Fold this sequence. Notes:
The protein has four helices and ten strands; from the N terminus they run E-E-H-E-H-E-E-H-E-H-E-E-E-E. By secondary structure, it is an alpha/beta fold.
Amino acid sequence: MHITHIVAAAENGAIGKDNRLLWRLPDDMKFFKEKTTGHCVVTGRRNYESIPLNFRPLPGRTNIVVTRQPGYDAPGAHVVQSIEAAVELARTLNETELFIIGGGEIYAQTRHFATRIWLTRVHTELEADTFYPAPDPTLWKKVSEEFHPADEKHAFAFTFICYEKN
Length: 166
Ligand SMILES: NC(=O)c1ccc[n+]([C@@H]2O[C@H](COP(=O)([O-])OP(=O)(O)OC[C@H]3O[C@@H](n4cnc5c(N)ncnc54)[C@H](OP(=O)(O)O)[C@@H]3O)[C@@H](O)[C@H]2O)c1
């Protein structure tokens, strides 16, 4: 089973502030939907709560919310109390590619065993309180990249980059 991070980060690693995203990039949202549909997605409780109520659980995906709160209720989603339990649940569902969708705490705790990263590098620097560090080139090999220019619907240019573990 691949364990894949999917994340959008500015040049300075910024991914979020005040439990919100920093941009609205419709083609990146579309990319996220295409990649993750049909798969299990693992989210931290804070990231899950940042998704508007009418968009969660993310449709067409098995949503797994990680929290330490006993009895936490997320209708339509699986709730687990550890990252290990989230990975185990995906394995029991015969998942082939498990997507870690953030936020910062969950990325940080799963990076060492992730096998693939889909990074949307957003070509700007923004103030933030949550960051995603650049993949270490001694550990991660860039296997593809595709540039998307800024336009009337996208305030910033960005590049879809895929990394795989060396
Ligand atoms: N740009 C992007 O691609 C992207 C993607 C996702 C998120 N984000 C941004 O990231 C920010 C949220 O990230 P965050 O770091 O604040 O929070 P987070 O990682 O989404 O969630 C943190 C919460 O997850 C639970 N948790 C963490 N580690 C755990 C463990 N080992 N076992 C059990 N539960 C655990 C805890 O929930 P409890 O407190 O309930 O115990 C913790 O408070 C937001 O600004 C969001 O917009 C950006």
